[in-house]
Amino acid sequence: MAWPKVLFGVPKRDPGASDVYAVAARHRQRLLEGEAKAVREIQRAYRIAERGMRRRLAEVQAQVERATANGELVSRAWLERQERWAALLAAVNRESARFAGKALGTATRRQRESALAGRADSEELVRATSVRSSFRSLPKAAFEDLVGSFSDGSPLTGLFEDVASGAAKVAQEVWFDGLAAGENPRKIGRRLNERLGQALQGRGVLIARTESIRVYTTAQQRNYSANKDVVEASIIVSALDARTCPMCVAQHGQVLQHGESFHRHPGCRCTLRPKVKYFETKVETGEEWLRRQPADVAREKLGKARYELWRDGRIGLSDIYVETMHPKWGPGLRMRPIDSVLDRAGKPG
Fold first, then answer.
1. Which of 240, 196, 273 lies closest to 17, judged by CA?
2. Rounded to whole angstroms, how far apart are CA atoms 105 and 107?
3. CA atoms of 47 and 11, how far apart (whole Å)
4. Alpha-helical runs (H) found in 81-184
């Protein structure tokens, strides 16, 4: 189906909350603009890395084609003996490491911007409620530990090092599988370009997006928690657009108490708004929002099987996902397998 530019379901709003929603919308737009800039930088870095690998890839392709034409048996062992193959792997290692360094720089800078934005935006959101209060914004130093880290506080550097170190493995896997299947070397080369693009550029973009938003919302939570006399809790706010996954729809409108973990998935774009004392406003939940959408919108979000169970009232949106806690990556979300959803609906798998 064709999604409208603005979904039918912008959240229902209490008139008293109009300023808060307007401010939150402006903050989200600014976040997306910063994200888009970071994505362009990472894409540009990958194009440079890709050029550095293409010549070596072309040399391997030509060598394999000549050997095949001469009746040689081109196998994994044969390829591993070739200098041009070693040169390709060296180029992949070199260029992927260079790309990872540039992407790390972009992601770290974006984290720093996001931490400061989360600090400033959380204060502005509270003031937009028109509640006269002495909101105290934490000093910048209180957010310095967020920069260069990911969910468990480990260095972001290690995450990008993993991205770079996996590139040569991708090259070997694609070539060895292609040779075993008797594929044309040009076809193998095209698939290698695609896989490296996913492993480097795609992964780099996902990390930068995920970690910048995570830092932003963590900064929000810290500022809100430092002002418990004014802010009672945080409320999860999803984009509610065509890109919003069903887990984020399900979380929209949920209240997070101070100190409670914010569970999210890679690429999550959910942010937070304050639940301010003496400022009562009805927050529409994702469940309520989805009930107001046309059936084809809800069906596309949930998939046919989940949609039918949800439509019939046999499950709620909270039944479609599981909150996780990884020892390294921290709080997360994953979709329940359909068999598990069926069990929760009381229907035999």
1. 273
2. 6
3. 40
4. 83-127, 156-180
Alpha-carbon separation of residue 7 from 27, 77, 188, 228, 240 (angstroms): 19, 56, 42, 34, 8
Answer yes or no: are the C-beta atoms of 217 and 118 closer than 8 Å: yes
> For the segment 18-60, what is each residue's pLDDT rounded down to a tens digit?
678 788 889 999 999 999 999 999 999 999 999 999 999 999 9
Distances (CA, A) of 280 to 14, 130, 283: 9, 12, 9
pTM: 0.88
- In terms of Cα–Cα distance, which of 243, 251, 311 is closest to 285? 251
Whether the Cβ atoms of residue 259 and residue 222 lie closer than 8 Å to each other: no
Neighbours of 296 (CB within 10 A): 11
Joined tokens for residue 98: 């260079």
d(CA 227, CA 233): 10
Sign of the Cα pseudo-torsion (7, 331, 207, 114, in order): positive
